[in-house]
């Protein structure tokens, strides 16, 4: 994650030295949410994933009201 973010940051004119911070934030967000979901099992896994991607992709300022995963198989 850190390498991917570092390359993207550099190509977009952001400081690539911040990539480790953002990588930890994203990994931590997903890991802790996954642990929480294992306890409650609601909402459905795909919905949780869609909301995580929504937050990670858009940040709080650009959150979509009803995020969804593209190409996700129904389970």
Automatic annotation (TrEMBL):
InterPro entries attached to this UniProt entry: Tet_transcr_reg_TetR-rel_C_sf, TetR_C_32
Any Pfam family matching the protein: TetR_C_32
Residue ranges of domain Tetracyclin repressor-like MT0489/Rv0472c C-terminal in the record: 17-61
Protein name: Tetracyclin repressor-like MT0489/Rv0472c C-terminal domain-containing protein
Species in which this protein is naturally found: Streptomyces haneummycinicus
């Amino acid at each position: 994650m850190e390498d991917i973010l570092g390359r993207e940051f550099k190509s977009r004119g952001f400081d690539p030295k911040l990539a480790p911070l953002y990588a930890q934030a994203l990994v931590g967000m997903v890991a802790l949410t996954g642990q929480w979901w294992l306890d409650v099992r609601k909402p459905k896994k795909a919905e949780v994933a869609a909301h995580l991607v929504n937050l990670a992709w858009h940040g709080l300022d650009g959150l979509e009201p009803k995020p969804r995963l593209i190409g996700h198989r129904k389970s």
